Amino acid sequence: MFSVVLLGNSAMTHLIRVDPRLHTPMYFLLSKIGGDMMEHENHTFSSDFILLGLFSSSQTSQVFFSFIFFIFIMTITENALMILLIRRDSRLHTPMYFLLSHLSFMDILHISNIVPKMIADYLSGSRTISFAGCGFQIFLSLTLLGGECLLLAAMSYDRYVAICHPLRYPVLMRDSTSGLLAAGSWLVGVFNSIIHTSFALHFPFCHSRAIDHFFCEVPAMLKLSCVDTSRYERGVYVSGIIFLLIPFSIISISYMQILFTIFQMQSGARQKSLSTCSFHMVVVIMYYGPFIFTYMRPRSYHSPGQDKFLAIFYTILTPSLNPIIYSFRNKDVLMAVKNIVQNNFLNRK
């Protein structure tokens, strides 16, 4: 594993240096991450990190492990089915479902970045993770968390236009617009993650290598550093404003406008729309609330148990609820499921 990581990072760094087309800020930061990883792997590959995780050997932990495993399988199945339905059914080829397909893909990647390692550690009894593996977890996690924050704001804007300005919807939410919103969410998430991963991995870890968390997360990693990280923490706070407070404010304002429009509808349509909006806001609060509380508090206010509990919401529970709340309660999605079942199973008989 060490040889593969070293070879891969060496090749990437060499390509960035020799190809002028890769002389951009993004690739400069990528080369810095690769260099940091090689340096740490060369000197500290025998001192891997230890993830203390969520589970112990108690009977309660075994039940909790079974619950997490069930949630993982359910999340992968739900989101994969959602992507399949959107691709196969032409009635779902709309901006809203296009954004939902990206949300489902992010959720699959996010839970797959964390839970399989938890499961493997629990079953094998080994809790170690390499420096490169920890860096990859941080990078992918920050990319997906940041991207999903922006994507949820884009989805709320889509719903706002559809409900409050239905006649202007074809103009304001063209396919190109939804494509730009999705691509922007990914790219900005990646760029933010490159910056934070590079800085987080650059700090020397002089204390214990035991990370009191179930995955490599920046706040938990900073506790292991033996240097002052206050300047970097201020950068995390600024990113929190950009990726958490601003998108959450956009979502809140959008849904306030939507609710104002809903109250002017007839009673039947009003009740259904209120129910849908309520479920949407519950999921949004479950995602943003713990996320904001984790990343926008000073390090001195963090406790391992509290951080792990909060992280479960935005890394495991919310990805499992998104398809149910945003999609499977929708009649168009249910009709698409019915059509696929009929075309692929019933018609064969």
TrEMBL record:
It is found in: Cell membrane. The chain crosses the membrane at residues 63-85, 97-115, 135-157, 178-195, 237-262, 274-296, 308-328. It comes from the Eukaryota. GO terms for cellular component: plasma membrane. The keyword Cytoplasm does not apply. The keyword Transmembrane applies. Keywords: Cell membrane, G-protein coupled receptor, Membrane, Olfaction, Receptor, Sensory transduction, Transducer, Transmembrane, Transmembrane helix. Its main location: membrane. It is a multi-pass membrane protein. One of its GO terms (molecular function) is G protein-coupled receptor activity. Residues 78-326 form the G-protein coupled receptors family 1 profile domain. Belongs to the G-protein coupled receptor 1 family. This is Olfactory receptor.
